[in-house]
Design goal:
The complex is a heterodimer of chains A (288) and B (508). Helices cover 42% and strands 23% of the residues of chain A. With 288 residues, chain A is an alpha/beta fold. In chain A, the strands form 4 sheets. Chain A has a 5-stranded parallel sheet with strand order 9-8-7-10-11, with helices on both faces. A 3-stranded antiparallel sheet of chain A has the order 5-6-12. In chain A, strands 1-2 form a two-stranded antiparallel sheet. In chain A, α3 (85-93) crosses α4 and α8 packs parallel to α9 (234-245). The model of chain A has no long low-confidence stretch (mean pLDDT 97). Classes of the chains: A alpha/beta (288), B alpha/beta (508). The interface between A and B is large, with 37 and 48 residues.
């Protein structure tokens, strides 16, 4: 008699723990053939606020890690994904991608993390500088992470796009609360398990699943989210920008209606790191 | 123009009376012992009786035919008439800017754009004294500030950014940059000419064209700058000035043409602008308000720190977004600092802005004076101890005595709200961590000051303070090479330096 396999109950990764939505709501995920796969947590605004709290707790510690240490941890995350690449590819293939395309996406996601792992101890040398002011001061501009960044991932490239959005933010010491693809949430569920074994402190990356319409108003107005990095349509952009005005929040809003090649080398850059940095300039007198 | 010297009856301060022979040496307080002879700056500001709009390289009458008065806040006398732009004028300005962006300016090599900016810097230096007097007449700031700070710094901004125009490949490493096209800019009344230079110089260096609206109370020096643009041969449409109040500003900001909006002003108005632009996909730079902490540790060089505190809050009558309006003093030296500060404030000369000895000039407008009075009244009502020197104020014009509040709590309105006037709120702290916590406990994050003898403490504070600019053992220093801009609700984007140019380009 064939053994009945044990199926996994998907949970989201928040504050270093695996949780279900506080609402106890789920939505059914079906594979490309329409077969039931699993119930995915339908996170709420309350879950988002809890995740922001977790990110706030993790923030100062993560930002204070040395750049070298952050680089090694991002590299370790890449190692964790690479080691479970076939499992992740299967998760992507659920959405209908061919096995080859799914494997390609996993490889690109790993490479993206390696790219940003290498930036942690270099972007400052590229983005900051000493300023030659016309007075006896040593004047220098350095970068600092903004704080907690809200990420809203697109439906396409459910792993690669999500990582492409949050990796530059955590490279510099920000923490992230991300809403995964609604149509293909399972790669994000699996990614949570890899994050948990990556040495990345709990709360640095918090992954939520659910529906955009429910979550966007809170992403827009939550005052502790200092920036939103999202791939969103025109109506969502307007909603996010309106909410952002309440606390002068930074918005990096990519247009969902434009075709975007997440695999291209242009989808990774030091400018993406800069998008979630503040520049700070210090004046120090030069004298005896 | 200068007000008559004020004959001052000697009013002995309580402190002088209290000091007894054989004890502490009496403080020398010169402030009100003798009336200073007037020392008016007499250069001719060369004002025109009427200023038209500057569109497409020409001064043109507003289509609606309306003008409004610009007055001298020092004596409430009319200085000139300023054109009131209508929406049709704003359309014309944007059309001119678009033509220049598509044509001459957009196609010009960077090295040629640079030469225009160099010329502008030089011509402004040539007419520096004239501009300084005009700036002081129109805005009320002391002539020593407009002469030694506003005008030379404005020229320096054009000169600095000129050199960038042909070196833009160094702005964003690994990327090529392109101008955004047409930019709409709205500037405040506290540094009218300097804000003009801050906004225009990086935009033009990058190859953009501009429609700019000066503040309605201080339009004159922008329009005088337009004369320089004509003398420099700047191609028509590259810079266009439209004048008027908030509705003209709204027309500039909400116009469909500009690819980017840059605003300097209050956080309140900044939020309104962000809302009105939501969904427009326009790029923005917001340089908004502040409530900066100026932190004095017990090992700080106190006399130097007191000068820094005074400069931090009374520079430009406190009409400074990065003013050090919250003084955080370590508890052990709080009384000493307060005493020194009071003695120093008694020597400040408040009065005719055109007088070269004046430290604190006129408040920019009646509206702003009313706002300052209301917030100061709130501070008194909340139980904060207020100190003002008993200096005489000119009979006409808008003036406010330098004011300090001690015994202020974090929740007090005078510790939380931007007053934008010569009003300092003093709070105390015990430990480094408490200083950081209190300094950061605000929605703003524009600037901060740190006074201590200990280098490692300076670096710790400059790391922990959530502010875009940190001054160590100094305050209110600016330079075109030094990026300026805020964290949190003090806005986003930087002005000055390499970083400031990033806000005026697209990466390709």
């Amino acid at each position: 008699m064939a053994r009945l396999p044990i199926t996994k109950t998907p949970k989201v990764y928040v504050g270093g723990a695996f949780i279900r939505s506080e609402s106890a709501r789920v939505f059914a995920l079906r594979d490309a053939a329409g077969e039931f796969f699993a119930n995915i947590p339908q996170c709420t605004r309350k879950d988002l606020r809890n995740a922001v709290e977790a990110a706030a707790k993790a923030g100062p510690g993560w930002a204070k890690r040395t750049a070298y240490n952050r680089g090694q941890i991002l590299y370790r995350l890449a190692e964790m994904i690479e080691a479970r690449a076939s499992e992740m590819a299967a998760a992507i293939a659920l959405g209908g991608a061919t096995p080859a395309a799914a494997a390609r996406e996993v490889a690109a996601a790993v490479d993206r993390l390696i790219y940003y792992a290498g930036w942690t101890d270099k972007y400052e040398q590229v983005l900051g500088n000493v300023n030659p002011v016309a007075a006896p001061y040593f004047n220098f501009t350095v970068t600092e992470p903004m704080g907690i960044i809200g990420v809203i991932a697109p439906d396409e490239a459910p792993l690669l796009a999500l990582i492409s959005l949050f990796a530059p933010a955590i490279t510099s010491g920000n923490t992230v609360v991300a809403l995964a693809s609604t149509t293909q949430p399972y790669p994000a569920i699996l990614l949570g398990e890899m994050l948990a074994t990556s040495d990345l402190p709990g709360g640095v990356v918090n992954l939520l699943t659910g529906f955009r319409a429910e979550m966007i108003p809170t992403f827009a107005t939550h005052m502790h989210l200092r920036a939103i990095s999202a791939v969103v349509n025109a109506a969502e952009r307007k909603a996010l920008a309106l909410g952002a005005a309440e606390s002068v929040k930074r918005t990096i809003l990519l247009k969902a209606e434009e075709k975007r090649d997440w695999f291209a080398s242009g989808a990774q850059s030091v400018d993406a790191i800069r998008d979630t940095l503040e520049f700070k300039t210090t004046w120090h007198p030069v004298g005896a | 123009m200068p007000s008559a010297p004020v004959a001052k009856k000697s009013s002995r301060t309580p402190q002088r009376v209290a000091s007894r022979a054989g004890r502490r040496a009496p403080e020398l307080i010169f402030g009100d012992l003798w009336a200073f002879d007037p020392a008016p700056e007499s250069a001719d500001p060369k004002l025109k009786p009427r200023y038209d709009l500057f569109i497409n390289g020409k001064f043109v009458a507003p289509k609606g035919g309306k003008y409004f008065d610009s007055i001298n806040p020092a004596n409430e006398r009319k200085l000139a008439e300023i054109a009131l732009a209508s929406p049709a004028d704003v359309d014309a300005a944007y059309a001119a800017a678009q033509r220049a962006a598509n044509g001459v300016w957009g196609k010009m090599p960077g090295r040629e754009r640079a030469k225009y900016l160099y010329r502008i810097a030089r011509l402004l230096q040539d007419r520096a004294r004239e501009f300084a007097v005009a700036e002081t007449l129109d805005g009320g700031k002391p002539i020593k500030e407009s002469r030694d700070f506003d005008v030379p710094m404005a020229a320096a901004h054009f000169f600095y950014h000129a050199g960038w125009a042909d070196k833009l490949e160094y702005v964003a490493p690994g990327r090529r940059v392109a101008p955004l096209g047409v930019v709409g800019q709205v500037i405040p009344w506290n540094f009218p000419l300097l804000m003009c230079a801050w906004k225009l110089a990086p935009a033009l260096a990058m190859g953009n064209t501009v429609v700019l609206k000066p503040a309605e109370t201080t339009s004159i020096t922008a329009l005088k700058l337009a004369e320089i643009f004509q003398d420099a041969g700047l191609p028509p449409g590259v810079v266009n000035f439209v004048t008027g109040a908030g509705d003209v500003g709204a027309a500039v900001l909400n116009h469909p043409t500009p690819a980017k909006i840059a605003f300097t002003g209050s956080t309140e108005v900044g939020k309104i602008i962000m809302r009105s632009l939501a969904g427009s996909d326009k790029k923005m730079t917001m340089e908004l308000g502040g409530k900066a902490a100026n932190i004095i540790f017990d090992d700080a060089p106190l006399d130097q720190a007191v000068e820094g505190i005074v400069n931090g809050i009374f520079f430009n009558q406190g009409h400074v977004c990065c003013a050090g309006s919250r003084l955080l003093v370590q508890e052990g030296i709080a009384e000493k600092v307060l005493a020194k500060l009071k003695a120093r404030i008694r020597t400040l000369r408040v009065g005719d802005p055109l007088d070269k000895n004046t430290d604190i000039g006129a408040i920019n407008s009646r509206e702003q004076l009313t706002r300052i009075r209301a917030l100061v009244a709130a501070g008194v009502k909340e139980g904060c101890a207020m100190f003002q020197p008993d200096c005489a104020l000119p009979p006409k014009g808008f003036y406010f005595r330098p004011t300090i509040f001690s015994g202020v709590s974090m929740s007090s309105r005078v510790a939380r709200e931007e007053i934008f006037g010569p009003v300092l709120s003093i709070l105390t702290f015990r430990t480094v961590d408490e200083a950081i916590e209190k300094a950061n406990n605000t929605a703003y994050g524009l600037s901060a000051g740190v006074w201590t003898d200990k280098g490692s403490r300076i670096l710790k504070l400059s790391t922990e303070l959530k502010a875009g600019v940190v001054w160590a053992n100094t305050y209110n220093k600016f330079d075109p090479a030094s990026p300026f801009g805020g964290y949190k609700e003090s806005g986003f984007g930087r002005e000055g330096g390499r970083q400031g140019l990033l806000d005026y380009c697209k990466l390709i």
